[in-house]
Specification:
With 509 residues, the protein is of the alpha/beta class. The chain is 32% helix and 23% strand. The longest helix is centred in the middle third of the chain and has 21 residues. The structure holds xanthosine-5'-monophosphate. Xanthosine-5'-monophosphate binds next to loops.
């Protein structure tokens, strides 16, 4: 039985970070909404209650059912979680009368308490709350505090239940990792045995058991996630896995042939489908970004379905879904309304009536990369920048033509190759070029030109949710601009995008 820590989500923006910190300790954990608590069995070694944008004083405060948890399993309330444990058990939470956002220092620490073992005096912590605990219930003991926040942390006597009003999961809490480790490893006694290698062994054997001799089909994209899924399945069921790689004509220059060759080398049973013409003709005269995405999504499903139907007796559809996608869809706040219609394979299972397998469903992106490393997948795949499913179609602003695709492929290829040559590729999270629907005047030799403008985009990020523009060296930008204008016919001006996300997005469409 896989031991785990349960994280109850009350909607904090930091809930995923708590999960990451626990997993960094090689302890497995899962996030559940506060009102969908799973059965509490022996596999659950402890529970963490997250923060929340809500207040425990609200009429509609979020109330979890802790009947099988509090006093039975070790529990740690963070921020809202702590305030909940105080307010609803005989204490009091009030609006704070001074700022409790940002850095603070723990002036008082009870180092005899296991949660604060080896945590240094005065250590910096990160506060982020509008409410504060003003009275603790009788059987609670203060174990840490700051100048302004007297009840910075508490423990309930005779129970392994703790609360902390600061956020140990964020980077600015200097010894946050230690505090989480004290809770997870010492107090919960969770085993630190969840590693990429153990994930591979257990997943391959689970896949074997689940699938048996059935056939599985998987869409490959050239990205990290689907490549890792294919490698795991290839190990588990070999030739019973058929992979389908669709050329939609909107990939980077030469990407289709290079990736196809790598897949074959990796021993995958892979079918390549040239659907360039179909995609291009359906996109003719379309300029609205969401319409482009929908057409591409629908086309992908059609092409994939047709190919998959040629394989006899397929029972399963594998997908490269990863944990952030899952968390997004089960989040307390509900699926975010602001995201673009990203997941282009989303409609597949319904159309195809297949059972779905998602072996990476519980992994974060960096964990997928670590698993990929354990599986000896090359850095070409593991370190590849993210690339959107609709490909270059959303980097050609306005209508798409074959000619525009070719121009953009050349520009993009020069940009990406130069980033690699200058050892900048791995420092950037994602890079690409955008073809603008703007002509500008230039001179070449004695002639006046009137040609296209391209924008270069390079960003640093950890998850694509927020991003800053990469501060690439001026010399590099200058060289690359010359190289593009001198080599790509039809382009006479290069600009560099210096917008961060938010308020801009990474893609332009
Ligand atoms: P934005 O533009 O929303 O992009 O800041 C965030 C990340 O998502 C990628 N992206 C997409 N990926 N289908 C995808 O598979 C899409 O329609 C899509 N749109 C944006 C983008 O490249 C970046 O990594």
């Amino acid at each position: 039985m896989q031991e785990k820590i349960l994280i109850l989500d009350f909607g904090s923006q930091y809930t995923q970070l708590i999960a990451r910190r626990v997993r960094e300790l090689n302890v497995y954990c899962e996030i559940f909404p506060y009102n969908k608590i799973p059965k509490i069995d022996d596999s659950i070694k402890g529970v963490i209650l997250s923060g929340s944008p809500f207040s425990v004083r609200d009429k509609n405060a979020l109330i979890p059912d802790l009947l099988n948890i509090k006093g039975i399993k070790p529990a740690l309330g963070v921020c809202y979680g702590a305030q909940y444990l105080a307010h609803f058990y005989g204490g009091k939470v009030s609006p704070s009368d001074h700022r409790e956002y940002g850095r603070a220092n723990l002036k008082f620490i009870d180092n005899t308490n296991e949660l604060f073992k080896d945590v240094s005096a005065n250590t910096q912590v990160w506060m982020s709350h509008a409410d504060t605990i003003t009275k603790l219930p009788d059987n609670y003991k203060v174990i840490a505090g700051t100048d302004d926040v007297k009840f910075g942390a508490f423990k309930i006597n005779d129970e392994e239940t703790y609360g902390i009003q600061f956020h140990p999961e964020v980077y600015h809490t200097q010894e946050g990792k230690k505090i989480i480790k004290n809770f997870v490893v010492d107090i919960c006694q969770a085993k630190q045995d969840w590693t990429p290698a153990s994930f591979v062994t257990s997943t391959v054997s689970e896949l074997k058991n689940k699938i048996g001799n059935d056939k599985v089909v998987l869409g490959l994209s050239g990205g990290v996630d689907s490549t890792v899924v294919a490698t795991l399945l290839n190990k588990a069921i070999g030739k019973n896995l058929t992979c389908i790689f669709v050329d939609n004509g909107l990939l980077r220059k030469n990407e289709y042939s290079q990736v196809m060759a790598s897949y074959k080398k990796m021993g995958f049973n892979v079918i390549g489908v040239d659907a360039k013409n179909k995609f291009l003709s359906d996109l003719k005269n379309v300029s609205e970004p969401e319409t482009k995405r929908k057409i591409i999504g629908r086309n992908f499903i059609e092409v994939f379905d047709k190919e998959a139907n040629k394989i006899q007796n397929v029972k399963w559809l594998a997908q490269g879904t990863i944990y952030p996608d899952v968390i997004e869809s089960i989040s307390v706040k509900g699926p975010s309304a602001t995201i673009k219609s990203h997941h282009n394979v989303g409609g597949l299972p319904d159309v195809m009536k297949l059972q779905v397998i998602e072996p990476l469903k519980l992994l974060f992106k960096d964990e997928v990369r670590r698993v990929g490393k354990t599986l000896n997948i090359s850095d070409d795949f593991l370190k590849r920048h993210p690339f959107p499913g609709p490909g270059l179609s959303i980097r050609i602003i306005g209508k798409i033509t074959q000619e525009k695709i070719s121009v953009l492929q050349e520009v993009d290829d020069i940009f990406i190759s130069c980033l690699k040559e200058n050892k900048l590729y791995d420092k950037v999270w994602q890079a690409g070029a955008i073809l603008l629907p703007v002509q500008s005047v230039g001179v070449m030799g004695d002639e006046r030109t009137y040609e296209n403008v391209v924008a270069l985009r390079a960003v640093s990020s950890t998850d694509g949710m927020t991003a800053d523009w990469s501060h690439l060296p001026y010399e590099f930008l200058s060289n690359i601009s010359n190289k593009i204008i001198n080599n790509v016919k039809g382009v006479n001006r290069v600009v560099f995008d210096i917008s961060s996300k938010p308020p801009a997005t990474i893609e332009w469409e």
